Amino acid sequence: MYALISSQKIQLPPGTVVRMLGSWEDYRALQDSRGDASIPRIKYRVEEVLLMSPLPKHGRDAHLVAGIVTALLDAQNRNYEAFTPITMELPEQGGIEPDYCFYIDNWQGVVGRDRLNWGIDPWPDLAIEIDVTNYTDVNDYLLYRLPEVWLCRRSRLAIYRLQDNEYRLQETSPYFPGIDLSALFEQCVRAAGERGTGAATRELRRQIAART
Length: 212
What we know:
alpha+beta
């Protein structure tokens, strides 16, 4: 497959990342060209547009991490809302598309909503990013002030928490106190590689139930 980027069509081979100078209008035009599809992912920084066509590992790991989050939240008997795909935007300033996002503290603000208005509705509490192609920079989320971002790179999980206007690497998450999430993620990645994602998620839920 060859790469093609135009106002009429976008076609990128899997694993391709494209960075180019561009305005907010260029970014919106590329979104229109993509139509209702969620691929490629499109990101906007001031005067820069980035496009990424994910590899299969991207989606598989995103599903696995989301499964870990939902299993832990269900064990806490907590309500939440989750969205994927989703585009978060601040006009003329930025646009970003996390692989998954969760509303945990602010779930009531978006429950039952089919569309979100970023000028009115709350930002997600947690964003999940799978970085297979060096497309992701956690600092891109500073504009949106999400409380927490999880970055999965090379089968390792890094937890970033917003503190004093910067994202700082943390050992744990306040949403799941006392849990070694990095070790849990590595365990699930190994299990998924050997027995499949479904088996890994079911095994995790059994382990959680045994501890409670």
